[in-house]
Write a structure and sequence with these properties.
Helix content: 25-40%
Number of helices: 8
Structural class: alpha+beta
Oligomer: single chain
Number of strands: 10
Distance between the termini: 34 Å
Strand content: 15-25%
Largest sheet: 4 strands, antiparallel
Length: 279
DNA sequence: CTTAACGCCTGAAGGC
DNA sequence: TGCCTTCAGGCGTTAA
C-alpha cells in the first residue's frame, strides 16, 4: 500500500537515521525479497558499506553508498523499513523481519514484510539512470504537465483510473491517491483516458499534486498498517474523502453516497454525484 | 503497440 | 466455536 507520500515519509525517516552509518553485517532471514543476488553475495556486497544518501524515485527507495554501490527497494503492499536503535528486539518488532542491516554503532535497520511482495535489488550507481528511465515522470516535478499527460493518454482507451495507476505514465500513484485525486478533480474514474480534455487534465494535475503534498505533510496514510521508520502512523487517513468510504454520504456535495466498483481487479471509490459521467 | 489476466503472499474478516 | 473461502493490491510476466 505504500504510495509516493508513504515512501517519501520513509525516505525522510531514513535520511535522518542512517546517513553516514557503516554496515558491518547483514542477516538474511528470508532470501525472497532479494531479486538479483543470493543471500551470501548480498552480505558480501554490503560489507563495510557506508551510507551516503537515501532517495525516492516513484515508489522506489534508493540507498546509495559511498562506494559505487546502491540498493533499490520497493515496499509493494506490506514492506517496511524500521530503524531500531536498541539491540534487544521485542516480539512485536521481530514479526516478519526478512533482512537485518547491522551498523557499526550497534543500531539496526530492519526490512520487514508480511506478504513478501517487497523487493531489494543491488546495483552499481552507473546503472541507476537506466532504472529511473523505466518509470514515468515525478508527479511533483515541473515535467508533469497537462500536455505530457494528454500525450501519454493519446492512444489509451482504458479507464482513467487504471491509466493513472500505470507507473510509466506517472510514477508513485497507487489506489488511494488516484481515487482521491479523481474525486477532487470531479472526474469519473471510468471515462477513457483518451477522452480527457485539456481542462480536465489541468485540474487533474493540480489535484494530484495537492493531494500528494498534503499527504506528505501528514506523513502518509495509515490504512492497513503503514508506519514510518520510527513506527509512527501517518494521519492522512483522517482526510480521505472517498477511499474506503463506500456507503457514506459524500462530505462535499452531501447528496451522493460513495460507491465502490471493481476496475481491473482493484477497488475504485467515487461519488456518483460529484464525479458524474459527462455525456 | 495496448490491454487483460494471473501469480506472488499472509492474516484478517466474513459466511455457514 | 471452528473451518473454509474471500479479500487486500503493486507489479512482473504472459497471453491475446
Amino acid at each position: 500500500m505504500p504510495e509516493l507520500p508513504e515512501v517519501e515519509t520513509v525516505v525522510r525517516g531514513l535520511k535522518k537515521t542512517i546517513i553516514g552509518k557503516k554496515i558491518i553485517n547483514v542477516t538474511v532471514l528470508d532470501h525472497r525479497p532479494l531479486k538479483n543476488i543470493t543471500a551470501q553475495k548480498f552480505k558480501k556486497f554490503l560489507q563495510d558499506q557506508q551510507v551516503e544518501s537515501v532517495e525516492r524515485f516513484g515508489k522506489y527507495i534508493h540507498i546509495i553508498f559511498k562506494s559505487n554501490k546502491c540498493i533499490v527497494s520497493h515496499l509493494r503492499m506490506t514492506g517496511k523499513y524500521v530503524y531500531f536503535p536498541g539491540t534487544k528486539l521485542d516480539e512485536e518488532t521481530k514479526k516478519h523481519i526478512r533482512v537485518i542491516f547491522h551498523f557499526s554503532d550497534k543500531t539496526l535497520l530492519l526490512f520487514k514484510d508480511l506478504r513478501i511482495f517487497g523487493t531489494i535489488v543491488t546495483y552499481d550507481k552507473d546503472c541507476l539512470i537506466e532504472e529511473k528511465n523505466k518509470i514515468g515522470v515525478e508527479p511533483l516535478s515541473k515535467e508533469f504537465t497537462a500536455e505530457h499527460l494528454l500525450e501519454q493518454a493519446k492512444n489509451r482507451k482504458l479507464a482513467v483510473k487504471q491509466f493513472l495507476l500505470d507507473q510509466k505514465v506517472v510514477a508513485g500513484l497507487g489506489n488511494i491517491y488516484v481515487c482521491e485525486a479523481l474525486f477532487h478533480a470531479k472526474i469519473n474514474p471510468e471515462i477513457a483516458a483518451n477522452k480527457l480534455t485539456l481542462e480536465q487534465a489541468n485540474i487533474l494535475i493540480k489535484k494530484i499534486q495537492s493531494v500528494l503534498k498534503l499527504a506528505i505533510k501528514n506523513n502518509g496514510t495509515s490504512v492497513s498498517d503503514f508506519r514510518n521508520v520510527d513506527d509512527k502512523s501517518g494521519t492522512f487517513q483522517n482526510m480521505l474523502k472517498v477511499y474506503q468510504k463506500e456507503g457514506q454520504l459524500c462530505s462535499i456535495c452531501k447528496k451522493g453516497t460513495i460507491l465502490r466498483i471493481k476496475q481491473g481487479q482493484r477497488s475504485t471509490f467515487y461519488c456518483p454525484v460529484c464525479q458524474i459521467k459527462q455525456i
